[in-house]
Design goal:
The chain has 177 residues and is mainly α. It is built from six helices and no strands.
């Protein structure tokens, strides 16, 4: 039984790492799109809220298979969290449509909302999700201050991937010592 659980934990770890990489790639894609076309970037980040919600629910579902608790409660909690995020994103959408925010500003606001939602959801479903949220937040701020922000974002994403993939091996080597 212990061996079966260990195999499941390894598979779950690889799925979580894969989702981290996918979300980082989607985030970098959004940064590039937002840089070239603020109107398209604005729409892209609205769609990404739904994509991030999907992956959060998927991770919560994977974690519920071997944890105490009702799966419907997890879905309810995730649905409320991401619905509230979409509600606030809708506020940014209406501010943009009313002329109070430019498309570029609305895109940055939505990116910050997505960043906060992702970081907070990471407290429930795992630190990897919080790291993606931190990456999103830092990307929005770095883009405002540096002309070559894309290269900085790519470097940060690479460092995050390296640390995330090497973290379990580092922990195992510490336990063996």
């Amino acid at each position: 039984m212990q061996e079966k659980k260990t195999i499941y934990e390894k598979i779950k770890l690889h799925i979580e790492e894969g989702i981290l990489v996918i979300l980082l790639i989607l985030s970098l894609t959004g940064v590039v799109i937002s840089d070239f076309s603020p109107d398209d970037g604005y729409g892209y980040w609205i769609i990404m809220v739904l994509v991030f919600a999907f992956f959060a629910i998927l991770l919560a579902w994977l974690q519920s298979k071997h944890k105490e608790g009702d799966f419907s409660a997890i879905i309810k909690e995730q649905s409320i969290h991401w619905s509230c995020s979409l509600l606030v994103v809708g506020g940014a959408f209406f501010l943009h449509k009313s002329g109070h925010l430019t498309a570029e500003s609305a895109g940055l606001v939505i990116l910050l909302i997505l960043s906060l939602s992702t970081m907070l959801d990471g407290l429930r479903i795992g630190w990897r999700f919080s790291i993606v949220g931190l990456f999103l937040g830092s990307s929005s701020v770095i883009g405002a201050f540096y002309e070559a922000f894309l290269w900085i974002d790519i470097a940060i994403a690479i460092v995050i991937v390296i640390i995330t993939f090497s973290w379990p091996y580092w922990l195992n080597s510490r336990e063996d010592s």
